[in-house]
Amino acid sequence: MAATLHRRLYLTAAVDPSSAEYAGTAFARFRYLFSTSPFWDIQFKVVTHEVKVGDAKYRPFSRALHAFCESSRISPEISGAMLDRFGAMLHLALRQDGPSEKRSLLLNSTIAATEGEVHVVLAYALAELSMPRLRDVYRIPDQGIQVVFGDGVLDYEFCQRHANSIRTYEATPINDWENLASANHEEESVCEDTA
After folding, report:
1. What are 15-36's pLDDT values in tens digits?
2. 164: left (phi over 0), alpha (psi -120 to 50) or beta
3. For residues 16 and 91, what is the distance between their CA atoms, to the nearest angstrom?
4. What's the rounded Cα separation, in Å, for the pair 79 and 35?
5. Are strands 143-153 and 117-130 parallel, antiparallel or unpaired?
6. Does residue 183 contact residue 87 with C-beta atoms inside 8 Å?
7. Which pLDDT score, from 0 to 100, does residue 189 have?
8. pTM here?
């Protein structure tokens, strides 16, 4: 059910999770719909962290992600898997062809069952990338970025009361939904957590 509701948010906001391009209007709509969804219980929250990142400096991002997951009672294994996915997305963004400077959106949505609750977790950051002359890979110049985390805990009773409506939404199996992300078509890589 969580995958169906989450997919519905993507479709309603017209966000294409398989695209490496940043679509500001669609993504703002997605964030708004995520934050106002009636399917989350009272534990819903969205927080923003300002972190400093740069080439080989990902520790502030990693700490912010782990702290958010810990405060949401999401296991370290799940936050570690999310960090791995961000590493794969960053690897993809750094290799893409394009102009000498660009902005890249790193977005991760995770469905996690923890302590008898189903969490739908949203994490994203927008970073500036630049490509030095005569190089074919982007780098991340030192910069402050905003990282946004959202956590919605599925409200089972509300979903049961509205089950007939939910059944009309496009149901997509989790494996199919998971394979939509562009980073899944790339070789796995791990984001090093360095100072």
Report:
1. 876 666 666 788 788 888 888 8
2. alpha
3. 19
4. 21
5. antiparallel
6. no
7. 38
8. 0.72
